[in-house]
TrEMBL record, chain A:
Native source organism of the sequence: Capronia epimyces CBS 606.96
Name of this chain's protein: RNA polymerase II holoenzyme cyclin-like subunit
Family label: Belongs to the cyclin family. Cyclin C subfamily.
Function in brief: Component of the SRB8-11 complex. The SRB8-11 complex is a regulatory module of the Mediator complex which is itself involved in regulation of basal and activated RNA polymerase II-dependent transcription. The SRB8-11 complex may be involved in the transcriptional repression of a subset of genes regulated by Mediator. It may inhibit the association of the Mediator complex with RNA polymerase II to form the holoenzyme complex. The SRB8-11 complex phosphorylates the C-terminal domain (CTD) of the largest subunit of RNA polymerase II.
Gene Ontology process terms (BP): regulation of transcription by RNA polymerase II
Residue stretches of biased makeup (Basic and acidic residues): 343-355, 362-372
Automatic annotation (TrEMBL), chain B:
Protein name as it appears in the record: RING-type domain-containing protein
InterPro entries: MAT1_centre, Znf_RING, Znf_RING/FYVE/PHD, Znf_RING_CS
Alphabetically ordered keywords of this record: Metal-binding, Zinc, Zinc-finger
GO molecular function: zinc ion binding
Keyword DNA damage: no
GO biological process: DNA repair; regulation of transcription by RNA polymerase II
Recorded superkingdom: Eukaryota
């Protein structure tokens, strides 16, 4: 179908669509890499400052050589997060973005919050929370989403809405985030599709094309409630699960509708597809579509908000504590990391200040060698007739 | 050549005016019979249209515009230059148009031969016919005063290949004409069809949206049909895309990892 090719042209399909297995594989790979780096970083930090331990959980008071040697061994065995724990932390970041969006004045629309959440999720496919903590990235993700989706808030205003946050904190990880997003800022959301589908369902019901569901049986109300429920699901469950990676937006909104009203979606899809053309390809497409949408629906249904689940809250707390221990010490200060990166990009290993000093020195040397650019003083010129 | 002869030759053959008695007398010539008469005679004979050359015994009919001032003192040279100009205007080929250098040299020789034929009046009729055929076959207008002949189509010779550069067959060894492939008009959608298959924006949809517009939709110039089209496109774009199947076919895990360095 033509519309399918339109979707296939999007960056969401080309770069950010995965099967369950490949998604798991990428996350495992990212986790392995990050764990390795965290261990290496701890090791480096320790060999650089043998006297004082940067690893606080391992209490070593004396600075003698034996203890150090022992500690290095322990350090290399830093307990890193597992893939599931990382995922939980990212989800915690997503819920924080949602809270931020609601707390803002003006309130950030849900589709922009959703964009920010997807940015965060995409970023943490190839980056680990052990390297960059989600709390460092999430404000930037939200700010980037407001810029990318035409809801521009000035940075000063954005920062003023949030406590304990400087402009640099928001700005610093921006390039990093963009890099992690592979510079694709387009997120195809199912919300707009839901609005279109809602209208079409209503029209079809009015025209008596939805079988039992018609104007006489209160179709508008039924469809309306289902759509409202679906909308809520899209704003929460669809964001907190991997739905965007695994399914297309049109499948997601139909799945959300299916969670709300299974029968309605079945009748709608059946009538819709048989109206298009009734041959074998359509029936097989319909079957496949139903199974895919059902799978997506069960994924959406399986989501439980940590707000109403005390055990999940506890789990998050535990992971948070664990993360403070195994956070990569070299990437803690995101502002400094970003600055160092920018300096490196601009001119090799030299920082700006060093470069400027070097240039000035070179100029002074040149001056000493050549004298003044306008030539030597006039009184030195023989025969100038001044005497 | 003494003084008397040159002065006598300078007289107008029609009215007998002499530059010595008429200071500022100017002569004109024509490129058909190359007779040289004074400006006054040209005005007198040709102001009422086409007329015969007034020099005794010459019956070439001429227009007034065909009389012009002489460029070279020697009329023979004047004539040869005129012939050369006419022939090179018709036989106008550059070296790049020929297959080989040899072909170009042959062409130059042919041109020289034709010029000399005309200059020395050998085979004038045959030479002129050749030139005319060539000019017609290649769409060259020989006389700028002649309008395009009605229904004048370059005569096609049966034995010539249709892509031969010279259809009259006078010049040999020209490169074949390569007609460039016609470019298709630019398509900004790069072949993507602009029709839709899953849906069709009907009037009933648009009236339904119009029924309860959101705040932004009340702005001037807001197009409800476009909104509906966009919503429906979003609703169905990718409906038949099964990522599980399509992504396992192409290995999407081999992505560049932009992770920390």
């Amino acid at each position: 179908m033509i519309e399918d090719d339109v979707y296939r042209a999007s960056s969401q399909y080309r770069y950010w669509s995965y099967t369950k297995e490949s998604l798991a594989r990428i996350r495992q790979n990212t986790n392995d890499l990050a764990s390795e780096r965290v261990r290496a970083a701890f090791h480096r930090a320790h060999t650089a400052h043998p006297a004082h331990s940067s690893n606080s959980h391992n209490a070593v008071s004396a600075g003698d050589a034996d203890a150090d040697a022992m500690e290095i061994d322990v350090d290399v065995d830093v307990e890193t997060l597992t893939v599931d724990e990382e995922l939980k932390i990212v989800e915690w970041g997503c819920s924080k973005i949602m809270e931020m969006g609601e707390a803002m004045n003006p309130r950030i629309p849900s589709h922009i919050v959703a964009t920010a959440i997807q940015y965060l999720r995409r970023f943490y496919l190839t980056n680990s929370p052990m390297t960059y903590h989600p709390k460092q990235i999430m404000t930037c993700a939200l700010y980037l989403a407001t810029k990318a989706d035409h809801f521009y808030i000035s940075l000063a205003k954005f920062v003023a809405e949030l406590a304990n946050l400087s402009e640099d904190d928001v700005k610093a990880p921006e390039f990093l985030l963009l890099q992690g997003l592979r510079f694709t800022l387009d997120v195809r959301h199912p919300m707009k599709g839901l609005a279109g589908g809602h209208i079409e369902m209503n029209v079809m019901a009015d025209e008596g094309r939805l079988g039992d569901i018609s104007k006489a049986t209160g179709s508008a109300k039924r469809i309306g409630t289902a759509a409202d429920h679906a909308k809520r699901l899209l704003a929460t469950a669809a964001q907190m699960t991997d739905a965007y990676f695994l399914y297309t937006p049109s499948q997601i909104w139909l799945a959300a509708m299916m969670v709300a009203d299974r029968e309605l979606v079945q009748i709608y899809l059946h009538n819709k597809l048989s109206e298009l053309s009734s041959n074998e390809a359509t029936t097989s497409l319909q079957q496949k579509l139903m199974s895919t949408i059902s799978a997506c629906a069960s994924l959406l249904e399986s989501y439980r908000s940590p707000k109403d689940d005390a055990s999940q809250r506890k789990e998050i707390k535990r992971i948070g504590k664990k993360l403070t221990v195994c956070q990569n010490p070299e990437k803690m200060d995101i502002v400094a990391v970003a600055r160092a990166k920018a300096a490196e990009k601009r001119g090799g290993k030299d920082s700006d200040v060093g470069k400027a000093l070097k240039k000035r020195k070179l100029e002074r040397d040149m001056m000493d060698k050549d004298g003044d650019v306008f030539g030597p003083d006039l009184r030195n010129v023989p025969g100038s007739g001044e005497d | 050549m003494d003084e008397e002869d040159s002065v006598g030759a300078n007289k107008c053959p029609v009215c007998g005016s002499d530059p010595r008695t008429h200071p500022g007398l100017r002569f004109k010539i024509n490129t058909k019979c190359y007779h040289r008469i004074c400006e006054g005679c040209v005005d007198r004979h040709f102001s009422s249209g086409k007329a015969e050359c007034p020099v005794g015994g010459c019956h070439v009919s001429l227009w007034k515009r065909e009389w012009r001032t002489q460029t070279f003192e020697d009329l023979k040279i004047e004539r040869e230059v005129e012939i050369r100009r006419r022939v090179t205007k018709i036989l106008d080929r550059r070296e790049e148009e020929f297959e080989t250098k040899r072909d170009y040299d042959d062409f130059l020789e042919l041109r020289e031969e034709l010029v000399m034929n005309l200059v020395f009046r050998t085979d004038v009729a045959a030479t002129n016919r050749k030139l005319k055929e060539y000019a017609q076959a290649n769409g060259i207008k020989t006389d700028p005063t002649d309008g395009p002949e009605p229904g004048a189509k370059a005569p096609r010779r049966k034995d010539m290949a249709p892509d031969a550069a010279d259809q009259s067959g006078l010049i040999k060894g020209l490169k074949r004409i390569v007609i460039p492939e016609a470019k298709a008009p630019y398509d900004p959608f790069m072949g993507m069809p602009r029709t839709r298959e899953y849906y069709e924006v009907k009037e009933s949809y648009i009236t339904r949206v119009r029924g309860k517009p959101a705040e932004a939709m009340l702005a001037g110039g807001y197009d409800f049909a476009q909104y509906m089209d966009e919503s429906l496109l979003r609703a169905f774009a990718g409906l038949g895309v099964f990522i599980e199947d399509e992504m396992s076919a192409r290995d999407n895990t081999a992505i560049p990892v932009p992770g920390p360095t």
